[in-house]
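Page 42, continued from yesterday. The earlier attempt failed because a stray header line got pasted into the input along with the sequence. Redoing it now with the clean sequence only.
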Amino acid sequence: MGLRLLALFLFLCSILLVAAGEPVGAQVGQWQSIGYEKWGFSVQIPGPVEKQSPIDQPRDGLTEAYVSHGLACVVKVVPVSPNLLTSTAIEQAIQTEMKLSAKLGTVRRWEQESKQGELFKGFIRMIHLDLGNPLYVPLRKILADGTGVECTSMAPLRDESGPILEVSVVGPRDRASEVETVARGIASFVSKTEAKPDASKESDASKVVKPAVKPQQVKPDIKPAIKPVVKPVAKPEPKPAPAPKPRPALKNGEIELNGQVDSIAPDSKSVTMMVDSIKMPGQGSITLSPARSKTVFVKKLPKWVAAGARVVIVGKNTGIGNAMTADIIEAAK
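This time it went through. Structure tokens are written below.
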């Protein structure tokens, strides 16, 4: 019994270090890293960790469960409908689960930012196990009476067209505070990497080499010298936007933003725009309501771009809330 209490004490101390922002290296022997190379991420779970029996895996997804110090830690990758933004799917899932759980007791939301700056959104609620739950067997080991507390958090695994990364911690009702503390610690130390390519799923279309597209040339605006006159010379009108040219199809990892320029940085090296629709590779236009603000860095700002102008910008998708760099800037049709 004494050794068990000592182990629990050390475990709680490591959790407090996470809350205080201590690096993983300062908690040697307390947290175990579990990597998912195929999906491009890893999680840290308080050790020692006992992986549970294989669970039936969802199609195009992942579900794995671990038991650590009498708590269950569940890691999931949840696919999202191709016509739905990942952030929208997360919000809908949170609202649905909270509504279903309200009858069992208090339900509340929470958020945690990871060390990589990813915002995990989630909820904490009471749960009651039933035989239809695919995690019934591992959870039954730690919930003697079939009821307990679950703390779940979610974030986009990659971008707005990718799946959801979901991490949950479940434990007895009298350990609710520990459940939330561990869940916040795991969310804090989620680390995302590049997903390992799956050659078996590579489509023929992705193997087609597309011809290189020459960047648009901007001719220098050379004006004849103006002889001195008595009257002030009026400034020339802004150059009209050129007619948009046919663009190549979006490549994997690219995104197309449609919206209105809100402001331009004094050095003209970036613009802030209100994006009201986006387009992903192989998908139709997705409307954003309300419109979202996006900062875009530009290599050379066309002279016709001004506050209030409607533009189409194409560049590498950097995810929600992150600035991106424009490869193409055109006037919206």
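Notes: Helices lie at 2-19, 86-101, 136-140, 176-188, 204-207.
Reminder to self: strip header lines before submitting.
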